[in-house]
Amino acid sequence: MRRGAYDCDVLVIGGGIVGLSTAYAITRAAPGTRVTVLEKEPGPARHQTGRNSGVIHSGVYYRPGSLKARYAVRGAAEMVKFCAEYGIEHAVTGKLIVATDRSELPRLHALVQRGRENGIPVRELGAAQIAEYEPEVRGLAAIHVATTGICDFTGVARHLAEASGAEIRYGARVVRIDRRPERGVAVRTAGGDVVRGRMLVNCAGLYCDEIARLTGDEPEARIVPFRGEYYELARPGLVRGLVYPVPDPAFPFLGVHLTKGIDGGVHIGPNAVPALAREGYGWGVVRPRELAGTLAWPGAWRIAGRHWRYGAGELRRSLSKGAFAAAVRRLLPAVTDDDLVAAAPGVRAQAVLRDGTLVDDFLFREGARAVHVLNAPSPAATASLPIGREVARRALAVLDSA
To answer: Could you say which residues of the chain have pLDDT below 70?
Structure first.
């Protein structure tokens, strides 16, 4: 097709921070490239980007050499610089990771080693030293990670959208994709518009596997949504900064933690329970087609069979405020049930393989005239600038070969 027959060169599906960072990176790397972003919501960053705890992760948790480790370490530094340059609210606060039981001490020491392998400065603390950072927190030992911070990721997403020079179409839910390797892609939205591009980039987050299948590519994983529920701390003065438990390496979730945000409030959470819809922000939100799709995926059942004890504890904390508060008191003994005020939840788009393995790294795949981002949960917001450059690199390579 002639250039004039296309509405754009690159058609990005998804207006979260990863999709907008990709659009930004493409126009920076190849000025003159026409980029259109389709986002089904009326504005940017309405789901994972805007519903997380706002933490700029240091990269201390992630396997050395993995994309998560490399992009988080690089992305954290870049995110702080980006926010400072464009006047976006942020702070480098540091955080504590606290062991409250002797069984957690070996895992805490392993995190020290992992952090050092990832090039992250980590300070080990004894029980008495914890009070230097958090007077109300109790534990047997802790580590302090100085490079962790907080920021307004929604503000970052808005600036990326404005600065990218891309055409951003909000309220544009994709319902059909016609891909022809010899010609390009045509996307139909729920409103009946058709947008034609030379190639497609799938940054659809909670729906990335469905968009891949609409394109005609079969992803090796399916998105299994997990809801994370949060509370606000009624007495935010109990916490100075960020306080985390020692995570269980068998799971991609960090456990219930305390985060003092840029607004001065303290978020507590999240837990992790199965969501009954891709955007299932409460037990009352059920979408039968999406739930049936999750239940039909063998990996979902294998997760449940393998980790039912862990899941039962998360479910209990979801249904019982007292149980949630008890988990918090392991770190912060002064907390009472009345200190917890319900806050907006989020949903994590977790890719799961057929055998029940949780995909533990960012996952990118290419098809004819397409690049798919198939797993980009936390720390994707932290790592969004290097992720965007990587996806842009792949997209431009596809364009060059088309």
So the answer is: 1-4, 250-252
